[in-house]
Specification:
Elements lengths: L3 E9 L6 E10 L4 E5 L6 H9 L6 E6 L2 E2 L10 E4 L11 H11 L4 H14 L15 H13 L5 E5 L7 H18 L2 E6 L2 H7 L2 E6 L2 E6 L9
Parallel strand pairs: 3-8, 3-9, 6-7, 7-8
Antiparallel strand pairs: 1-2, 1-4, 4-5, 9-10
Helix pairs in contact: 2-3, 2-4
The structure holds adenosine-5'-diphosphate (2 copies).
């Protein structure tokens, strides 16, 4: 496991672009479920994508555990990321989708087999392993996306609005499942949402952003959100 530290983090897109993340300082503890919440365009995704290594840091430092990762490529970071649009490979089966990251890392075949099946069972998608993504419902696809992330046992989980494409009922159900998954995996979670209810019900701590800066950080009962 590992915590994540953001030190004087700044980001602007392009050479003369405005700062969309401004002097963000935050220590996310090992095993914590941290939710970034705030209106669209406030810099949540950009912050998360810098932690993932998908965007360059303009200024400041990001540590994963004790390691300064500013110049570490995404694949070398011990993280897994889940997006709102699932990003599954359409021509691969559920099994192949889940196994993909392990195959890339040359994991032994029987270990891949065991890990995929075990995690599929956890997510209750074991019966779907031979299907293609197009043969799945939205909720099932999101479970496969989660499955693909957890088979690698990353130290840090990053989720960017993973539930926003689901219908309301499923969204509420998946909230509980993700919280439960986090508890079971004992991993560090950084979760981005614009949904205040989601933030309040899921996070052990909440970081409220506005216009690229952190406005408040605290436990759900301690932060104030405008209704
Ligand atoms: P969300 O708000 O749900 O994160 P967006 O529609 O804002 O999604 O962004 C989708 C993609 O477009 C992201 O990869 C983001 O980095 C990129 N993007 C967002 N705003 C801009 C912009 N002004 N110029 C170029 N790319 C952008
Ligand atoms: P949020 O996740 O809170 O919706 P973002 O981090 O996606 O916010 O965006 C923060 C700001 O950066 C927005 O003004 C957005 O338009 C801009 N932005 C995001 N991605 C890009 C990009 N690839 N190029 C230029 N501007 C971008």
């Amino acid at each position: 496991m590992a915590g994540v530290s953001l030190r004087h983090l700044h980001k602007s897109y392009g050479k003369n672009g405005p700062l969309v993340v401004k002097d963000v300082n935050l220590d996310i503890e090992d095993g914590e479920f941290m939710v970034f919440v705030g209106p669209s365009g406030c810099g949540k995704s950009t912050t998360l994508r810098m932690v993932a290594g998908l965007e360059r840091v303009s200024q400041g430092e990001i540590y994963i555990g004790d390691e300064l990762v500013n110049n570490v490529p995404p694949k070398k970071r011990d993280i897994a990321m889940v997006f709102q649009n699932y990003a599954l490979y359409p021509n691969m089966s559920v099994f192949e989708n889940m196994a993909f990251g392990l195959r890339l890392r040359k994991t032994e075949k029987h270990l891949i087999d065991t890990s995929v099946k075990q995690n599929a069972r956890t997510l209750e998608i074991e019966h779907l392993l031979e299907r293609k993504p197009r043969q799945l419902s939205g909720g099932q696809r999101q479970r496969v996306a989660l499955g693909r992330a957890i088979v690698r046992h990353p130290k840090v989980f990053l989720m960017d609005e993973p539930l926003s494409n689901l219908d309301a009922r499923l969204r509420v159900q998946m909230r509980t499942e993700i919280v439960e998954l986090h508890r079971r995996l004992e991993t560090t979670m950084i979760y981005v949402t614009h949904d205040q209810t989601e933030a309040m019900t899921m996070g052990t701590r909440i970081c409220i952003m506005k216009d690229g800066v952190i406005q408040q950080v605290g436990a759900p009962e301690d932060v104030y959100m405008r209704p």
